[in-house]
Write a structure and sequence with these properties.
Layout lengths: L1 H10 L8 H11 L2 H18 L11 H11 L2 H13 L5 E8 L4 E8 L8 E8 L1
Antiparallel strand pairs: 1-2, 1-3
Helix pairs in contact: 1-3, 2-3, 4-5
Length: 129
């Protein structure tokens, strides 16, 4: 809530109708640190919490399992790599599973503070570290 409240104070009615992701990307491109931090943290937390749900099925979708196995050798190898990457993310930040449209592969990336996937990276899963 604090990110949204501060974001609304900074924005007013500017950029109305834009997605939160588009606002964060524009703010970063414009070098507007305060706006980027609020918008990106709002995006990151919204994405993070949207992935959580009660009574989720005990197994992952077959398509995801196939993709993880293709790019990480196995689901267990992915889990280990994801946790290792997260533990190595110094300070405040995020660890992401992204799909990179440039080479059509799943990758694990770390971002610091309010950082979020950029460019050809599309978020699949994240963990707040």
């Amino acid at each position: 809530n604090a990110y949204v409240t501060k974001l609304n104070q900074i924005l007013g009615d500017k950029l109305e109708g834009e997605t939160i992701e588009a606002i964060a990307v524009k703010a970063k491109a414009d070098g507007d640190g305060p706006l980027f931090n609020q918008a990106a943290q709002h995006f990151n937390h919204s994405f993070y919490f949207a992935a959580m749900k009660p009574n989720a099925p005990g197994s992952m979708p077959a398509e995801l399992e196939t993709a993880l196995t293709k790019d990480f050798e196995s689901v267990d190898a992915f889990k280990t790599a994801f946790m290792d990457k997260a533990v190595g993310n110094f300070g405040s930040g995020w660890t992401w599973l992204v799909y990179d449209t440039a080479d059509t592969k799943l990758k694990i990336v770390n971002t610091g503070n309010a950082g979020m996937p950029e460019g050809t990276q599309r978020p699949v899963l994240t963990m707040d570290v």
